[in-house]
Write a sequence for this structure.
């Protein structure tokens, strides 16, 4: 597809996802407490973003969708830490986020280029240099 | 005149949709168990509620200048609600506000420093 077409189709796709997620979350909040389907989890999602713009935009778009929330990112390991509200399995949330990222990158980049993601879980060891660890 | 009436009616519908969204978000604040669920569900739903009210007001009083103002207002509202939710959730995590019991996987816990010292 041509680049401008990809931008417009991404916008429509995102608007649709945004409204669907809103309906989903609203319906769940209005359900009686014991029937609520919330099944939250914090999942490390491998990401293909590279530039500052892409990282900022993908984390904003994830947060803007009700029910998913970016907690933290690690550019070094190329990981987005995403809190999801309805997570049945790790794979389902990862697939959902990565589809959004694929579409976003195709809309942002004139040539989609490299969409590969890390496949192994990173080994995270705290160091005393200030390196994105959780200590302030 | 006919078009004007339709736009006015649609504007009222949008404003009431926005109010309903904000009310549901308020109920969510009480019903959801932890900070992260509240931030993800409520923070941005409230953003959508305000955006719907802005669209309704635009339809009731349409002009091209107002269209530009409304677009800027909606974009700014959605961006700030997203960034604000992220900032609140991240600072909550850094300040040891643990996710609710029902959270079944927590990958971020593996990166916590106190997890290594134990």
């Amino acid at each position: 597809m041509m680049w401008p077409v990809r931008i417009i189709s991404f916008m429509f796709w995102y608007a649709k996802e945004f409204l669907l997620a809103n309906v989903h979350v609203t319906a769940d909040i209005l359900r009686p407490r014991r029937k609520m389907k919330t099944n939250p989890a914090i999942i490390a999602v491998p990401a293909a973003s590279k530039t500052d713009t892409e990282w900022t935009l993908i984390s904003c778009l994830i947060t803007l969708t009700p029910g998913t929330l970016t907690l933290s990112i690690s550019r070094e390991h190329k990981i987005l830490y995403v809190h999801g509200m309805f997570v049945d399995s790790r794979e389902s949330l990862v697939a959902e986020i990565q589809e959004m990222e694929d579409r976003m990158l195709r809309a942002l980049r004139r040539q989609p280029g490299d969409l590969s993601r890390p496949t192994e879980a990173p080994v995270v060891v705290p160091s005393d240099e200030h390196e994105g660890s959780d200590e302030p | 005149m006919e078009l004007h009436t339709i736009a006015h009616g649609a504007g009222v519908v949008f404003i009431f949709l926005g109010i309903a969204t904000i009310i549901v978000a308020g109920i969510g604040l009480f019903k959801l168990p932890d900070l992260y669920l509240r931030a993800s569900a409520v923070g941005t739903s409230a953003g959508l509620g305000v955006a719907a009210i802005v669209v309704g007001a635009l339809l009731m009083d349409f002009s091209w200048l107002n269209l530009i103002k409304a677009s800027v207002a909606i974009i700014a509202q959605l961006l700030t609600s997203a960034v604000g939710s992220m900032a609140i959730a991240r600072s909550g995590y850094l300040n040891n506000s643990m996710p609710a019991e029902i959270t079944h996987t927590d990958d971020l816990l593996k990166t916590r420093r106190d997890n290594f010292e134990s």
Notes: The mean pLDDT of chain B is 84.
